[in-house]
Structures are given as structure tokens and as C-alpha cells.
Design a protein that fits this description.
The complex is a heterodimer of chains A (112) and B (114). Helix content of chain A is 0%, strand content 54%. Chain A has 112 residues and is mostly beta strands. In chain B, the strands form two sheets. In chain B, strands 2, 4, 5, 6, 9, 10 and 11 form a seven-stranded mixed sheet that branches. Chain B has a four-stranded antiparallel sheet with strand order 1-3-8-7, with no helix packed on it.
Chain lengths: 112, 114
């Protein structure tokens, strides 16, 4: 089955700096790669996703890049703000398949 | 819309007890899933369903049963709780339609087995 690895496990940045979180996946059949943000005491919430037919996608301060050949994808957050502090999860699956596998998570702390 | 509602929010069980974690969604989504979240291990898929009457095993199904008699409800049953099942459990519902998809998660159930 699919195996997703995520790095780093913790990340601390100064407000205004950029943050990058990286994930690798093992199953070349996976074609859907979402990123979730989880705030304390809440369930994960989708923040951005990318399909395998796209190399990059951007939404305001967040962007995701995908390298299908190397089987890795990354989340980029620019101009970080204290409210970006949370745990971020990457995941991989086939688009119409409910069997989604998650990375172990990255705890991002943005220092004011 | 309430989204995905999980009950209870907290539960303490003794080893060997049984219980059902409830999950309901009001978005008419076909797909529903149960995950457990443990420190340093992310979310691991327990069971999932692609529609009423259809369920399948995920990554860590042992010790858990599910059923999907309606589109709205997807309960998770622990038949004989074990300390290894101490975790935070999340239910999710999702859709895939015309190239769009998104999973919505409940608030979680924190289960402690003593």
C-alpha cells in the first residue's frame, strides 16, 4: 500500500519568513495530494490540494509543488503569521479512492 | 449544515468493554472514513465506506468494526477495548465529483482505555 513520509516533524520560523514542508510517497498510482491544517483540539481542515496532472498550485500565501518523477511534493507558506501555527499533514491517494494515507505531520510554530 | 458530527467527544473505557463511536454527516457525501491519530504517527485509516452498504478495511482495521446502513451514519465499534486503542479518533466524509474533491473531518473523539 501507499506510504507517505513527511519532514520535518517540527519547524519553527520567525513571523514573515517562509516555511517549507516536504513529503514523499511510494505508490506511483497515487494522483491526488492534499494538505491539511490541524489546530489544537480540532479536526484537520483541507488548505490546498494538487492533482498529478499539475506541477504547481498556489492560493494566496500557500503553494504546493509536485514532482511525479521523484514522487515528492511540498507545501510552501510565505509571509508566515502567528495564526499559521498548527500541525500540517500531507496525504496521498487516488482521486476517487477513499483510501487516503497521511504523513506523520509537521508542527509549525511561527514566532511573533 | 452541521458538517461531520462525532459523539462522544471524550470517553474512558475499561479494558474489555465495548462501545460505539458515532459519526453523522449532513452533506450527502458518499465517502466516509474513520482514522485514529497517535503522536508521531499522523492519521491512520481504520475503515472506510464508498456508499451505503459498502465498507472496506484500511491500514489498521483490527479490533474495530463498522457498518454503513445509511448515507448519513458511519458508526465505529470497539468490541473489546484494549489499552492500545487509546487514541484520538476522527471521522471524515468526502465527495469526488467533476474533478473536485474534499474531505471534511469531525472534531474528534478522545478515547482512553485503562
Amino acid at each position: 500500500g501507499e506510504n507517505v513520509e513527511q519532514h520535518p516533524s517540527t519547524l519553527s520560523v520567525q513571523e514573515g519568513d517562509s516555511a517549507v514542508i516536504k513529503c514523499t510517497y511510494s505508490d506511483s498510482a497515487s494522483n491526488y495530494f492534499p494538505w491539511y491544517k490541524q489546530e489544537l483540539g480540532k479536526g484537520p481542515q483541507l488548505i490546498i490540494d494538487i492533482r498529478s496532472n499539475v506541477g504547481e498550485k498556489k492560493d494566496q500565501r500557500i503553494a504546493v509543488t509536485l514532482n511525479k518523477t521523484a514522487k515528492h511534493f511540498s507545501l510552501h507558506i510565505t509571509e508566515t503569521q502567528p495564526e499559521d501555527s498548527a500541525v500540517y499533514f500531507c496525504a496521498a491517494s487516488m482521486f476517487d479512492n477513499n483510501d487516503m494515507r497521511f504523513g506523520a505531520g509537521t508542527r509549525l510554530t511561527v514566532k511573533p | 449544515n452541521a458538517g461531520v458530527t462525532q459523539t462522544p467527544k471524550f470517553q474512558v473505557l475499561k479494558t474489555g468493554q465495548s462501545m460505539t463511536l458515532q459519526c453523522a454527516q449532513d452533506m450527502n457525501h458518499e465517502y466516509m472514513s474513520w482514522y485514529r491519530q497517535d503522536p508521531g504517527m499522523g492519521l491512520r485509516l481504520i475503515h472506510y465506506s464508498v456508499g451505503a452498504g459498502i465498507t472496506d478495511q484500511g491500514e489498521v482495521p483490527n479490533g474495530y468494526n463498522v457498518s454503513r446502513s445509511t448515507t448519513e451514519d458511519f458508526p465505529l465499534r470497539l468490541l473489546s477495548a484494549a489499552p492500545s486503542q487509546t487514541s484520538v479518533y476522527f471521522c471524515a466524509s468526502s465527495y469526488a465529483f467533476r474533478g473536485e474533491t474534499e474531505a471534511f473531518f469531525g472534531q474528534g473523539t478522545r478515547l482512553t482505555v485503562v
